[in-house]
Design goal:
Layout (H helix, E strand, L loop, with lengths): L1 H7 L9 H25 L1 E3 L2 E2 L4 H12 L1 H16 L6 H7 L1 H16 L9 H29 L8 H31 L13 H13 L1
Antiparallel strand pairs: 1-2
Helix pairs in contact: 2-3, 2-4, 3-4, 3-6, 3-8, 4-5, 4-6, 6-7, 7-8
């Protein structure tokens, strides 16, 4: 989307070297791993699942700031922190952690598709965030996470729906309370940084051209 906007306005967007993004990715994985491990260990429901999974809000925000770097950091952070370091088998951790990937990936795709601004300045932006960054993404993560834990033999079928419900409720509360605060107050500064890979508003030259064409038609 950023490239499309650049082409429309004949602008070139300079990007930092790939090594900088790899360093950012490594840092995010470390932070997500440590956060996931801490909250899963300190507030356990079942193995790998926390009753206070605060790190999920940061995973969502990082995805909206850093694009797919943030999404994959959420995945590998879950594999390491909530999975391997929390005692889950490696094979289970690899497919179970897709839950955290979905929780970060769904809002990123929705914001790009609906041209929503992560600063959440309008009702449109806020509705996109609430639907795709709080409800649907966490519902998808809870369903995937609970079922794969059962498939992997980590929880019993009797624990399935309690795990799913607890996962969903905890994450929507955390995501709905913390992520909007970070997006509203920190995103304006983050957009000024070269590392920002998130959604940007359509450029004014494109908006003027689009509006003019609609008037003519």
């Amino acid at each position: 989307m950023v490239q499309e906007q650049s082409d429309l306005c004949n602008e070139e967007i300079a990007r930092p070297p790939t090594i900088i993004y790899l360093s950012l990715f490594f840092l995010l994985v470390c932070l997500h791993s440590l956060g996931a491990k801490y909250f899963v260990f300190s507030y356990p429901i079942v193995p790998g699942v926390s009753s206070f999974y605060l790190i999920v809000a940061f995973m969502i925000v990082c995805a909206l700031w850093f694009g797919m770097w943030g999404v994959f950091a959420a995945y590998f952070g879950c594999v390491i922190g909530a999975g391997i370091l929390s005692g889950l088998p490696l094979d289970v951790s690899l497919y179970w952690s897709v839950a955290d990937l979905l929780q970060a990936f769904i809002p990123l795709i929705a914001f790009r598709y609906f041209h929503a601004d992560p600063v959440l300045q309008t009702w449109h932006d806020l509705m996109v965030f609430m639907i795709f960054g709080v409800i649907l993404n966490n519902l998808a993560g809870a369903i995937w996470g609970a079922f794969t834990l059962e498939i992997g033999g980590i929880i019993s079928s009797a624990q399935l729906f309690n795990t799913m419900g607890s996962w969903f409720i905890v994450n929507i509360i955390v995501s709905g309370c913390i992520a909007p605060f970070l997006l509203y107050f920190v995103t304006p500064w983050m957009k000024t940084q070269d590392l920002y890979q998130g959604v940007k508003p359509l450029p004014s030259c494109y908006l003027k051209k689009h509006t003019f064409n609609k008037i003519r038609s």
